[in-house]
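User: Hi! Is it possible to get a structure for several chains at once, not just one? Here's what I have:
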Amino acid sequence: MDQQLAISVRGLRKTYGDNVAVAGVDLDVHRGEVFALLGPNGAGKTTTVEILEGYRHRDAGEVRVLGVDPARPDAAWRSKVGIVLQGTGEFDELTVGEVVRHFSGFYPDADDPAKVVERVGLGAKAKARTHTLSGGQKRRLDVALGIIGRPELLFLDEPTTGFDPEARREFWELIRDLAAAGTTIVLTTHYLDEAEALADRVGVIAAGRVVEVAPPNMLGNRQEALATVSWRNPDGTPGSAQTATPTALVYDLAARFGGEVPGLTVTRPTLEDVYLRMIGH
Amino acid sequence: MTTTTKPTAPVVAAPARRTGAGALALRQGRLEITQFLRSRESVVFTMGFPIIMILIFAAIFSDEIAPGVSYTQYFITGMIATGLMTVSFQNLGIWIPIERDRGVLKRYRGTPMPKWVWFAGKVIMVVVIGVAETALLLAVSVALFDLDLPQTAAKWLTFGWVAVLGVTACTLCGIAISSLARTARSGSAVVTPVALVLQFISGVFFVFTSLPTWMQQVAAIFPLKWMCQGLRSVFLPDSFGAQEPGGSFELGTVALVLGAWCVIGLILCLTTFRWTTRRDG
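Assistant: Yes, the chains can be modeled jointly so their relative placement is included. Here is the combined structure:
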C-alpha cells in the first residue's frame, strides 16, 4: 500500500437491484490533496463517497482509505476521518455550542469547540438553538462537526449547496486553510467554479464511472484546445477565428487595425464546456 | 462542564486523552435528557399524560373499590405502568424514527463514538425521566387523593424490580419497533395504536378482572398487563391477590414474562436496528 495515498480505489462496483450506481470506479487521492468529484445527479458520486466513508457496503472492488478497508471501520479510523454529509442530522433542541462541544468528546484529539465554532463563522450563533439557523448556517455547523476531531481526511458532500455567493467565498477560504494545514479533502460538487477554485485535481464521474481525472485547467485537454479569438470589424460586423496560435493572430490583428483591436477577446473552452462534453451533452 | 482542552503535557496525557467510555455514556445521557426536556411536546405528552389521566380518573371514580381502599389506589398502578411504558416504549418508538429520518443517527455513526454509547444515552434518559415522572405522579396522588404509599421495604423492593424489568422490556421493544417506521412521521402511527390497545386490554383504564376473559388472555402475552399486576401487589392490600385471574399476584410469573420480553426485545434490537433510513441503502 502506497503511504502517499489517502484513498485508493480499484474496480469499485455497487448495484441497487437492476440499477448500477457505481460501475467500476478506479481512483487515487494523494495525502494533502484537495480532490473534487464532479458529476451530474445520479452519476454515483454520493454512493462512491459513502462507501469510502464506511456507510455503505460495496459489491466488488478494492478500497483503502487511510490504509483501512472502510467496510470495517474502527474507532481509531473514524477519529481520523471527518464527514460532512449531504442530508444533515439536526439537533433542533440544542444550541450550536452544545452540539459542537458534545461531538468534541468523541474524538481523542479534538479541537477546541469554541474555536471551531468561530472558525466556521458561527461565533455569533454559538448560543442559538440549531433550528433557528439558516440553511447556510446549518451547513457551517455540519462542517464544524466534520472538522472538530482534527481529521486527516475530510469528506464534504456538496458542501455549499444553498450558499449565497459571499458565504461560498468564505467557505472556500476555510477549505483552503484546512488544505494548507495538510488535511486531505475530498469534495463532491456540481458547481464547476467550486471545483476549479479549490481542487488540485478533479475526477469527473458519469454513469457510475470515472471519465477523467486531471487538474482543473487540464481537464479534457483544455489547455491544448483551440482558442477562440473574437473582435469587431471596422464595419461593425463581428469577427471570430479558432486558432492554435492566438498570440500570432492577435499580433496580426493589431497590425491590421494599427493598434487597439476593437472588442478583442481570447477564450479557451471553459471547464463547463469540457465537463458537459464529458458527461455526454 | 467538560471542556476538552489540549493536554498541556501531551506525552504524559496521551494514553488518557480519550474521554472514558463511562463518561461518554453519561454525557450522552445528559444530552438526551436536555433534548427531551427542551421539547415541549415530549414533556407535556410523556410526563404530563399519566398525571392528567389520574386527575380525570380520581374525579370520575371518587368512591372506594373496597372498604378503606379508594379507586385511586387501584388506578395508580395502571397509571404508573402506563407512564413507564410511555417514557420508554412510546417515547423511543416515536423519536428514534424522527432522529433516523433527520440523519442524526447517521451522523453519530460517522464518529468514533462506540455504538453502545448511543443506546446507553437513551437508557439513561428513559430511567431518569421515568423516575421523575413516577415520583411526580405519586406526589400528586398523595397530595390530592390520599394515596397510601407502600409501607414495607419488601413492597418497595417489588416496586423497584417490577419497574426496572418493565422499563427495560419496554425500552428494548421501543427501540426494536422504531425500525418498523419508514419515515419520521410514521413512528407515532406505528406505536400509538399498539400502546393504546395494550392500555385498554391490560387493565389500565378498567378493573382488569372485569374485562372479557379472551381479552385478559391476549393481554397476558404482553408486558403491560404484568407490570400492572406487579404494581397492584405493591399498592393494594395482600388480600386483593385472591381476586387476580390466577388467584394471586403471581410475582414469579411477572418476573418471568417481563424477563422474557427483555430477551425478545434485545434480540429484535440486535437483529433489526437500522442507523439509516431505507432510502439510504
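Residues 165-180 of chain A form the longest helix (16 residues). Chain A touches chain B through 37 residues (CB under 8 Å).

User: Great, thank you!
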